[in-house]
């Protein structure tokens, strides 16, 4: 059996100019990066009616795998196969997971975006630009303090760390500026991974270059001794940061193995940020196609909720339909089966684990979005197990469709495409689940009770005081971004299925004033991952002819 990278290399790709031409883009709107990648400078105001936005989300992730990105790609290919004009809009992969445990994020099997190696590695340099802009601000903070600290920034209350697009646990907590007075004032700090940077979130939520710079200027980097906020604009850093991001803000155009256009742009962390591709790329796709397939990170309790309550709220987008990806294997894990035993038929475990899927269905329906379930097929699935899932969700008025896009490409998702198009062509009643006017703590309570089915939240006294201060300072109208484990509806990653009666602890809150949301850190969430005992990097090689081995 061919590996993903071998399948990708065997494909005959179309010149990117031809892909752009199919979208009706003039040459002046396309900036080629080689033969198979391009940046787009097109305005989203093309005069045509916007397409229908389709969100692909999933049940809570498990080590068994769900295949959300693969399903998104297969669905887009299938929509095109059925004669519809469709565009895919995805996030860019981070280098950290590529060399760690997860691997890349370009799909798999015969449902991939290409060129796979380029997209998974440096691509068009967007992440490097974001890293540089973030670290420029960090450098200007320390430089300001070194040259007299005219703003009165308290070194003990600087919130802005540095970032690196790599998994490196050694950098989570550091002491910087050692070596004498010429090297600055020693203080504690640390590094986050680039995808957790507020600059990444800002790039993905900005409307245009002017909005990008305005948002960068609103970044709160720390406070003075009397707790007055100090911003990037106060440091005169916003202009230079925008300069570094002038090309990164342009969406990237590539294609699937079947030649379907794909805009891959931005990649915010789905815990500490909103986990969706850029607003600019999504709007551009909607202006060019009748159907746009996008996805949100992790399960629907994180990714879909933030897609609706943060991205769609800020950008004024409405979601026409949602696909929830599930697998027989993952439902068995939610039903208590160990990973080593997943290949064995276990109808009872599938039925037990289906409670996780049912809750995600109910949650997405709360937003007024119609739902279909994609059962991502594995070779060990039995007909009885698949039928059981279909019968269980049918009781809730939802269709579950087996999909074989991994093995068959778009041909394996045609039935899903027809169902999704039918849902998307029906008027949606999309809505967010809380009002802007609610206080911040009440918004957090609403997400915890309505989406996680918790009895409530347990913020620390310091969190309660901080939220009250932000409400009073005018930040109360912002949406909230709940940062919790992706593996459970609770803050405990071991509680699988559909737990109830739990309480969500909030140990810390962070103001992302530039991105336009307030982060609630629930339990133990890391913003700088570490490498596993045997990282994917161990198996990577470069052959004499330049071919890469081991990337997946």
From TrEMBL:
Please provide, alphabetically and separated by semicolons, the GO molecular function terms listed in this UniProt record: formate-tetrahydrofolate ligase activity
One family from Pfam that matches here is: FTHFS
Task: Report residues binding ATP.
Answer: 62-69
User: What's the catalysed reaction?
Assistant: (6S)-5,6,7,8-tetrahydrofolate + formate + ATP = (6R)-10-formyltetrahydrofolate + ADP + phosphate
Signal peptide location = none
Q: Which PROSITE patterns match?
A: FTHFS_2
SUPFAM superfamilies assigned to the protein according to its UniProt record, in alphabetical order = P-loop containing nucleoside triphosphate hydrolases
The biological pathway it contributes to is: One-carbon metabolism; tetrahydrofolate interconversion
Q: Which InterPro entries match?
A: Formate_THF_ligase, Formate_THF_ligase_CS, P-loop_NTPase
The record's comment on protein family reads: Belongs to the formate--tetrahydrofolate ligase family.
Check the record and name the HAMAP family matching this protein.
FTHFS (MF_01543)
List the protein's name: Formate--tetrahydrofolate ligase
Q: Please name the taxonomic classification of the source.
A: Bacteria, Pseudomonadati, Pseudomonadota, Alphaproteobacteria, Sphingomonadales
């Amino acid at each position: 059996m061919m590996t993903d990278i071998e399948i990708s290399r065997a494909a005959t790709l179309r010149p990117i100019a031809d892909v752009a031409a199919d979208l009706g883009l003039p040459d002046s709107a396309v900036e080629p990066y080689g033969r198979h990648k391009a940046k787009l400078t097109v305005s989203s105001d093309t005069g045509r009616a916007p397409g229908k936005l389709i969100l692909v989300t999933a049940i809570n992730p498990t080590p068994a795998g769900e295949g959300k990105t693969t399903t998104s790609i297969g669905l887009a290919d299938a929509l095109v196969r059925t004669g519809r004009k469709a565009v895919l809009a995805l996030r860019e992969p981070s280098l950290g997971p590529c060399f760690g445990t997860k691997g890349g994020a370009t799909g798999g099997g015969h449902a991939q975006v290409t060129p796979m190696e380029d997209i998974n590695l440096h691509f068009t340099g967007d992440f490097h630009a974001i890293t540089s802009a973030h670290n420029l601000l960090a450098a200007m903070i320390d430089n300001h303090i070194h040259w007299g600290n005219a703003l009165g920034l308290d070194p003990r209350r600087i919130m802005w760390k540095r970032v690196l697009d790599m998994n490196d646990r050694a950098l989570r907590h550091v002491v910087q500026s050692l070596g004498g007075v010429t090297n600055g004032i020693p203080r504690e700090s640390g590094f986050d991974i680039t995808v957790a940077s507020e600059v990444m979130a800002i790039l993905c939520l900005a409307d245009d270059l002017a909005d990008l710079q305005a948002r960068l200027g609103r970044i709160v980097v720390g406070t003075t001794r009397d707790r007055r906020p100090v911003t990037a604009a106060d440091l005169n850093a916003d202009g230079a940061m925008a300069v570094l991001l002038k090309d990164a803000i342009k969406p990237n155009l590539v294609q699937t193995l079947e030649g379907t256009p794909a805009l891959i742009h931005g990649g915010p962390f789905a815990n500490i940020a909103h986990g969706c591709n850029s607003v600019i790329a999504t709007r551009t796709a909607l202006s060019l196609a009748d159907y746009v397939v996008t996805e949100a990170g992790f399960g629907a309790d994180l990714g879909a909720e933030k897609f609706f309550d943060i991205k769609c709220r800020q950008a004024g987008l409405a979601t026409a339909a949602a696909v929830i990806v599930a697998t027989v294997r993952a439902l068995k894990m939610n039903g208590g089966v160990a990973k080593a035993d997943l290949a064995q038929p276990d109808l009872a475990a599938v039925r037990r684990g289906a409670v996780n899927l049912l809750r995600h269905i109910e949650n997405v329906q709360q937003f007024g979005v119609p739902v279909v379930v994609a059962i991502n097929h594995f070779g060990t699935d039995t007909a009885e197990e698949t039928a059981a899932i279909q019968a269980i969700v049918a009781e809730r008025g939802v269709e579950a469709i087996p999909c074989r896009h991994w093995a068959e490409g778009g041909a394996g998702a045609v039935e899903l495409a027809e169902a999704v198009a039918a849902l998307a062509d029906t008027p949606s009643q999309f809505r967010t689940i809380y009002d802007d006017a609610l206080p911040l703590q009440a918004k957090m309570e609403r997400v915890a009770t309505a989406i996680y089915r918790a009895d409530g939240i347990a913020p620390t006294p310091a969190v309660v005081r901080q939220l009250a201060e932000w409400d009073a300072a005018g930040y109360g109208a912002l949406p909230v971004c709940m940062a919790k484990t992706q593996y459970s509806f609770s803050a405990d990653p071991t509680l699988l299925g559909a737990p109830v009666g739990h309480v969500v602890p909030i140990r810390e809150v962070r103001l992302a004033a530039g991105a336009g949301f307030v982060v609630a850190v629930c339990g133990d969430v890391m913003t700088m991952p570490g490498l596993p005992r045997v990282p994917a990097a161990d198996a990577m090689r470069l052959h004499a002819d330049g071919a890469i081995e081991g990337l997946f």
